[in-house]
Specification:
179 residues; 7 helices; flat; 57% helix; mainly alpha
């Protein structure tokens, strides 16, 4: 027998954790789609604090550079600021590129590695956008061809005939009444 996971079970579990604890507890939930969550799960009292983890901005980058590299300013900061405006990268990805990989890595090496990561991410984003545009254009072309097959002009009287094999029964019935 397979156990089922339900919203009610999750809510009971969360509420049970709160009531069973003598001291304060922090429970962290993460999601990429807060709009898809049930309001009962994210109501006040159950989820007390909502924090949006956005992409890295230049101010956050400067904090990371200070933390990992002990650098307050560098000649590459201008290029990094420009790339941050063009490419969406999480603070975790920025930090990963800023962390020295060996004892011999210098701050400049880490900053250059970050710039390369930005350039790679930018290329990947461009490729992804081009692929999405290509798929969308193919879909629209297919739909256009489908429409051309579905509706054919009857030569004698100029009345549109619908191909019933290409349309749903409801569309066919409603078009039959019109014709």
């Amino acid at each position: 027998m397979r156990a089922r996971f339900t919203l009610s079970g999750l809510l009971n579990c969360i509420d049970g954790l709160w009531s069973a604890c003598g001291g304060e507890r922090i429970i962290v939930f993460t999601t990429n789609h807060v709009e898809k969550l049930d309001p009962a799960l994210i109501r006040r009292g159950r989820m007390g604090k909502h924090i949006e983890m956005s992409y890295c901005c230049f101010d956050a980058f400067k904090v990371l550079a200070k933390t990992y590299l002990e650098i307050d300013s560098h000649s590459l900061f201008g290029e990094i600021e420009r790339l941050l405006g063009e490419v969406e990268m999480t603070p975790a990805d920025v930090a990963e590129n800023l962390m020295p990989k060996s004892d011999y890595d210098k701050g400049e090496t880490c900053l250059e590695r970050l710039i390369e990561a930005f350039k790679d991410a930018k290329e990947e984003a461009i490729k992804k956008a081009e692929e999405e545009a290509r798929v969308k254009a193919e879909k629209e072309e297919k739909e256009k061809e489908q429409s051309a097959e579905d509706v054919k002009e009857v030569k004698g009287n100029g009345v549109a005939a619908i191909n019933p094999w290409r349309t749903s029964l409801c569309e066919f019935e409603s078009s039959r009444r019109i014709l």
